[in-house]
Amino acid sequence: MLDIMLKVEGLEKSFGENKVLKGVKLEIKKGEINVIVGPSGCGKTTLLRCISGLTEPDNGSIIINNRYLYKNGKRAQKKEELEIRKDVGLVFQNFNLFPHMSVLENITEAPRVVLGMGKEEAKYKAIEILGFLGLESKQNSYPFQLSGGQKQRVAIARALVMEPKLICFDEPTSALDPSMSEEIANLIKRLSIEKSMTVLIITHDMAFAKEWQPHEL
Q: In this structure, are 101 and 75 located in the same domain?
C-alpha cells in the first residue's frame, strides 16, 4: 500500500436520475502515468473532480497517499481534507486562467493565498517552473497573448507550484491544435521522469491515449 499514490474503491455519483459513476475502482502507483478513456458524458471529469475534492461522491472511498479523502462516501474532517487536497493538482480542460492577471500572477496567486507563501518565494518558484516549461520569457504576458499550447503549460505551472504529488489532466488536448498533442505528451513524460510526478489523465483522444496503456471508464 505504501507505493500506491491513489486508490479508488466503489466510487458512485449520481446527478438526479443520471448515475455517472457506477462503482469505479482505480489504483495508481507512485510515479506512474495512467490514462482513462471514454466518450463524453461517461463520468471522466466527474471522477477527477471527486479525486480533487471539488465534487462529493455519493458512496465509495478515495485514498490519496495513504490517507482517506472519502471513506464509504464520508468526507475527511476539514483540516485533514485540506491537507490531503494539497497533494492533488488539477489542470482544467479550458485552462481557467485569470484573464486580468499576468502569467506570473496567475501562477503565484494560489501559493500565496492558500499556502501563505511569501511574494518573493512564490515568484522564485514560479520562475523556476516556467523555466522548466520553456516559458520564462512569458512571465509578464497575459493569457490573451498566449497560444493554446502556452496557456496549457501555464495551467500546468499553476498546478506544479503547489507541489502536488499527484497531478490530474482533464482532456489535455481538447483545446489544442492536433499538432500540439505530441508536445503535451512529451511534457507529461518529463513530469513523471524529472519531477517524480504521479499522473492521471482523462481523455477521449485515442491517438493521444495510445502513448500509454489506456483504461476505459
A: no
What are the grid coordinates assigned to 63, written together?
485514498
- Residue carrying C-alpha cell 455517472: 20
CATH code of the domain containing 61: 3.40.50.300
- Average pLDDT of the residues in 2-10: 93
How much is the CA Rg of the chain, to the nearest whole Å?
A: 17
Distance between CA 53 and CA 51 in Å, rounded?
Answer: 6
Together in a domain, 67 and 36: yes
Give the pLDDT score at 4: 94
What is the SS3 assignment for 65-114?
A: CCEEEEECCEECCHHHHHHHHCCEEEECCCCCCCCCCCHHHHHHHHHHHC
Domain that holds residue 69: 1-87+165-217
Nearest to 202 by CA among 192, 186, 183, 188: 188
| pLDDT one-digit tens code per residue, 68-96 | 999 999 999 999 999 999 999 999 888 89
What is the rounded CA–CA span in Å between residue 40 and residue 142? 31
> Both 149 and 95 in a single domain?
yes
In this structure, what C-alpha cell is assigned to residue 97? 486562467
Q: For 158-197, what is each residue's pLDDT tens digit?
A: 999 999 999 999 999 887 777 788 888 889 999 888 888 9
